[in-house]
Amino acid sequence: MLKKVIVGAALLASASFATFSNFPVPAAMSGDAKIVADFIVHDKWKGLDLSAKARFVPVQNLELYLKLPFRPISRYDGKNDHKTGMENLTTGVRYQVAPMFAAFLDVTFPTGKEKVSDDGFNFYFGGQFSKDFGAVGLGTEAGLSITTEGDDRKKGPMSLILNAELDPNVSQVVSPYFGITFDILLNDEKTRGKKSAETSGDVGVAPYVGANFKVNQLLSFDACVTFGLGDDDYLIYTSGNKKMTVTWEGSVNFSF
């Protein structure tokens, strides 16, 4: 159950940031890099995740993405539970099909420690729609997440992830944003090919609010808070109880 709390809390923490961005692919030969810290609180469990994220656009409309996460702190009921170490590596590609439409594929490899991350591959693919209305930018995403069977012979449920974010254009220095992510489990978990948990139809909801603070064209900072909610069955399956998960995120961003 404790591993489920750890993995489930991480899922709720990252659900609203599955891809690097919901907005159009930047210009060719440009890119971004981020150092991200997520402080996650779920009932008696608290953890700190650090990750390095980067994207690069080698040619017009094509974006390459990399995420390397690490968990240095994990505590349960105030005590070190020793569930720390490298987490699974994610690589991705995104293509701007049209000015308002993009398609993406992310692949997560089971490179992390078993006590921290799932031990199967994860494939996340889908499409995005975005539009700049002048006063506000809208970015949306719809994707299907599929996890393969790992060494533990468990295969998690497929999930449909829906995200929408609004970025009001209020200042050249401070840019607030508001979003919400829905994680809809589409089938049941299986172990050794047989149903081991009834998860079909369970729904998680993760609203978030944050802001970007621009220092100059090359450097900026982000601060964001995400609330991991959902129906009772979803929360019990992903995190072991019905408690809300709260994630405080900060990042240092570099653009080139």
Description:
There is one protein chain. The protein is 8% helix and 61% strand. It has 256 residues and is mainly beta. The chain has a 12-stranded antiparallel barrel with strand order 1-2-3-6-7-8-9-11-12-15-16-17. A hairpin with a 2-residue loop joins β2 and β3. α1 packs across α2. It is globular.
Number of helices, where a helix is a run of at least 4 consecutive DSSP H or I residues: 2
What is the straight-line distance between the termini?
Answer: 43 Å
Task: Please tell me the overall pLDDT.
Answer: 91
Given helix and strand content, the structural type is mainly beta
Q: Determine Rg (CA atoms, Å).
A: 18 Å
- Measured as a percent range, the helix fraction is under 10%
Overall number of strands:
17
Q: Give the amount of beta strand, in percent.
A: over 45%
Unreliable stretches: none
Judging from the principal axes of the Cα atoms, what is the shape? Answer: globular
Order of helices and strands: HEEEEEEEEEEEEEEEEHE
How is the biggest beta sheet arranged?
A: 12 strands, antiparallel, barrel
Kindly report the spatial arrangement of strands forming the biggest sheet. Answer: 1-2-3-6-7-8-9-11-12-15-16-17
